[in-house]
Amino acid sequence: MIVFQIVGDEMARKSTVDVNRRGFLGSLAAASTGAVAAAVPGAQAADPVTGKPAPEAGDKPRGAMPPSAAETAAEFGAPGKAVVSTAVSCGSDFMVDVLKSLDIDYLFANTASSFRGLQESIVNYAGNKKPEFITCMHEESSVGMAHGYFKASGKMQAMACHGTVGLQHASMALYNAYCDRVPVLAFLGNLAVANQRANATDWRHSAQDPAAMVRDFTKWDDQPLSLQSFAESTVRGYKLAMTPPMAPVALVADAELQEMELHERAKLVIPRLTAMSPPQGETGAVREAAKLLVAAEHPVIIADRLARTQAGMDRLVELAELLNAPVIDQATRQNFPNTHYLCQSANSAALVRGADVILGLEVTDFWGQINQYVLAEHGFSSKVKGPAKTITLGTTDIFMKSNYQDFQRYPAVDISITGDGEATLPSLIEEVRRGLSNDRKTALGARADGFRKAHAASFEAARAAAANGWDTSPVSTARLCMELWQAIKAEDWALVSVGASPGFVSNWPHRLWSIEKQYQYLGVSSGGGVGYGLPAAVGAGLANKKLGRFSVNIQCDGDFMYAPGALWSAAHHRVPLLSVMHNNRAYGAEAMLVQHMANRRNRPIKPVDIGTVIDDPPINYAKLAQGMGVYAEGPITDPKDLAPALKRAVAVVKRGEPALVDVVTQMR
Amino acid sequence: MNKLIVLALLALASTANAADRSVAERGRKNYVEFGCVKCHGIAGQGSVSGLKLAPDVLPADAIITFLRGTTGPMPRYGAEIISDAQIIEIHAYLESRPKPASPDSIAALKDIRGKR
Predict the structure, then answer these.
(1) What pLDDT does residue A33 have?
(2) Which among B54, B73, B113 has the least Cβ separation from residue A375?
(3) Fold observed for domain A468-664
(4) Which of A31, A248, A253, B50 is the most exposed place for a label (fewest CB within 10 A)?
């Protein structure tokens, strides 16, 4: 409980309600010159910037000289009257109560003045539990960690940032989360009341409408101007974000509200969170889809962001087995066990070409699944050979924004079922079951043998392909992935990140590992914003720490350099995470694309590596990691050194710490 | 006399092998410099971005014809970019690659079938 007692003549109006931010900032300035220490009996003056206790008499000065009065005034405004806390509740304590009511475990944030009230309440009022403050070194990392945490645990988390400069940093990661249908509760610090802004920095860090810059790729936002409305908007935002189609929401946490005294806490009500129920597909449409699937001779199921939970994977297995229909898993989630004979992702082109019914489950780009761009013709052609009936089941049609073009090209399908895929699968399965006669069951069962053979052939072909170039240096991506698989397969492992696409390592985990649980592969950024991999892996690692799972991250070098500070967060918070660098010393996709342009234009190839390679000087990721307190080995160039290094790193992670192995690899 | 003939033949063979190695070395250099390595891998093993080139290398003539005329995802390499002689050297490099080991002889690729 905090009460601000105003010391000084000008502000001695005995208003305990309206202790404003300007007064508080004035007190900080006074504190920096020692005034507050004198005003508060027994109090130890704190460093106004770091919040750490000032050195006691006799302590040796550490490092830099304290700021001069002029420097202090420039940062905090002119010294004002000291404001002393003597204990009641404050607005941000109530905000913490709201977060507790939603069972938020963590608030990911890079500290910032515009939410210092909230931060102080988390630390002192909440005892840094529920939520715990996770120290992030970039706002993009804060969102990325919340993104990864959700995909590992299914629990939405919060992040906080300045509503201006912090949100500008965070915006790309919010776009990734939006494209990936992942909820994040983003709190934006702001100071709406202009005459409470103490100095130039306050003005620069305030906005009329902070959420405007991310409105195109958040599900909802609000700027509550009272604590009661803060509670209602936060609970509403939580519910909206967590209802499929999921997406981030942004809520302004006004600094004035955070820092105001709160005397009548009992008058404030935190609304009860009603359990979310995902929208389900309409019964008639589901029945029609089932009829088409049962009658089809060559049905194909394409699954994109379908499985939110293990139940989603289990239901898809049930549907596929009922129909003996092949499944093409888009690898944005682990929708289907890759060891199942109906997992036919490796044969997707042939299957789509010969399909007579195609069912898309939560597929963002269904048009792109049945059409392809033909470079030579600068146009498109159908991937499907004959006439095929098309069915989509998903939530794409429920929620769409205009500006950013994530919604993809319009697919004119035969049946469009609007509803959450995972929630609708049970009724689709029931309709399929109802439509299957015994004769039809027998006929569909006859397909199984062919798919078993095709599945086995794909696996053996992949195994042989992995052996090709096994001993080469730089290390092949096949060897990178398969030595890693050997090192972790005895654990309850989860591949929490693999760069922008598993294609960056030629899909080796999906081709040769046994991925049989929904949580064992968490997909990709989906927005293609670089800098997702490491923060998302750290967030997922934090979640998996509680769940007792071993987290592994195949970390691309270009992506690493966007947000290397996330590794420090992993070390600081003791996140057990094995990161294995796919260090091809390049922005691989762009290296290929720029070369393609040179080829098409009949121009020299060699100079086009300018801007796409990261080899002069080569970056030593092991040293970078070590510098942040992380166990690390490498760079490994001899493939024979890889397995022993991984073994040592696994042991470190099993002790509860992060570890990194830097491996110099081939491009793909 | 017979010994002299054998020695002479061995010397010729050695010279020929050295010449082959030299061509293959130049081919390797071309393979990297012309960007083949990016998509096809240093051993020609292929990747998601490019087909396997070795072992079972296509004839050099077929490679030249393909590179000059392709309109698919693989970019065209005109004579302005790479000469026939340079492609033949790349072909020699790919031919010089050793046959990959059987996956059953590699510990990390053995016994990984799981439930398959």
Answers:
(1) 39
(2) B73
(3) Rossmann fold (3.40.50)
(4) B50
State the smallest CA–CA distance between residue A194 and chain B in angstroms: 55
| CATH annotation of A283-456 | 3.40.50.1220
Q: How far is A433 from chain B (nearest CA, A)?
A: 26
Q: How far apart are CA A457 and CA A453, in angstroms?
A: 6
Chain A from 446 to 465: CB within 8 A of any B CB: 455-456, 459, 463-465
CB-based contact, A591 to chain B, within 8 Å: yes
Which residues make Cβ contacts (< 8 Å) with residue A453, sequence separation at least 6? none
pTM value is: 0.89
Spatial CB neighbours of B67, under 8 Å, sequence gap ≥ 6 = B76, B77, B82, B87
Cα–Cα distance, B106 to B110 (Å, whole number) = 6
Domain count within chain B: 1
> Is residue B43 a part of any domain in this protein?
yes
B52: nearest CB among A465, A486, A603: A465
Per DSSP, A280 falls in state -
| Torsion, Cα of A28, A34, A35, A37 (10° steps) | 90
- CATH homologous superfamily of A89-267: Thiamin diphosphate (ThDP)-binding fold, Pyr/PP domains (3.40.50.970)
Q: Does A601 touch chain B (CB under 8 A)?
A: no
Place of tokens 């995902």: A278
Per residue in A639-656, pLDDT tens? 999 999 999 999 999 999
Tens of pLDDT, residue by residue over A336-382, are 999 999 999 999 999 999 999 999 999 999 999 999 988 777 899 99
Contact between B116 and A666 using a beta-carbon 8 Å cutoff: no
Cβ–Cβ below 8 Å for B49 and A592 = yes
Are residues B45 and A469, on separate chains, in Cβ contact within 8 Å?
A: yes
Domain ranges in chain A are 4-85, 89-267, 283-456, 468-664
**Residues 6+ away with beta carbon under 8 Å from A621:** A557, A560, A581, A583, A632, A634, A635, A660, A662
Which amino acid is residue A422, in one-letter code? E
